[in-house]
Amino acid sequence: MAGSQRSPRYALSFTSGALLMREALIAAPLYLREHDWTKVRELIWENNLLQSRTVATGQRVAREVAQRLGVLTDDELELLVDATTSERGHLMWAAASRRYDLIGEFAEEVLRERFLTLAGKVTYVEFDSFYRSKAIWHDELDGITDSSYKKVRQVVFKMMVEAGLLSNGGMIEPAVPSARVVKCLNRRTPSDIRFFPTRAA
User: Fold this and answer.
1) DSSP string, 98-143
2) Domains defined along the chain, listed by start
3) How do residues 39-72 score in pLDDT, each as one tens digit?
């Protein structure tokens, strides 16, 4: 049986942007007003609210931010709008980890695990090893071009840096989510705290 039949396919469309914190601050209030992601995307496109240089880029990024924010609850979106920069980074990392299994599994199996075992760093070497192990079961991972793979890897690491979970040099930065972010993460089973380098349960 082929790998793609054995396991759900990984989506890799997150390379449209990194953590998208600025874009989320534009899209989240629109959704809380409209409660319709299609309408939100149309408003962003029609008014070029993301200030994209081209129509195609604007549409791609608007679609991506809507898909990521779509995995957050209304309570989480309200918190996102009201959040500190650190809280917003943590919420957007949780959103990316929920939306994309590849990111969520990397966060749990590599980032958090290396933090808990005091490894100290996460580098491209660890990502390459993780990716190869997943590609055994997922033909879609094995089938992308080398340049696309490098983009996937680059964006995942950029997300971790923007979320405050990794230094530019690859050192793991322990996450200290606020009480209200932890409350959001713990509403899910298993808790989304598993996506963070922290000893919190």
Assistant:
1) HH-HHHHHHIIIIIIHHHHTT--B--HHHHHHHHHHHHTT-HHHHT
2) 16-70 (no CATH), 73-201 (1.10.3540.10)
3) 999 999 989 999 988 888 888 999 999 999 999 9
103 Rama class: left (phi>0) / alpha (psi -120 to 50) / beta? alpha
Distance CA 68, CA 94 (A): 9
CB-based contacts of 51, cutoff 8 Å, min separation 6:
none
Question: Which residues, other chains included, contact 24 with Cβ-Cβ below 8 Å and sequence gap of 6+?
Answer: 65, 68, 69, 80, 88, 92
Find the helix or strand (DSSP H, E) in which 176 lies.
none
How many angstroms separate the most distant Cα atoms in the chain? 49
- Tokens 């690491």 correspond to 157
Residues 6+ apart with CB under 8 A from 2: 139
Proportion of the chain in helix, strand, coil states, percent, rounded to 5: 65, 0, 30
Residue carrying the six token digits 């971790």:
160
The whole-angstrom separation of Cα 82 and Cα 192 is 20
Q: Give pLDDT tens digits for 169-191.
A: 999 999 999 999 999 999 999 99
Angle between helices 37-47 and 55-69 (to 10 degrees): 150
Q: Is the pLDDT of residue 2 over 50?
A: no
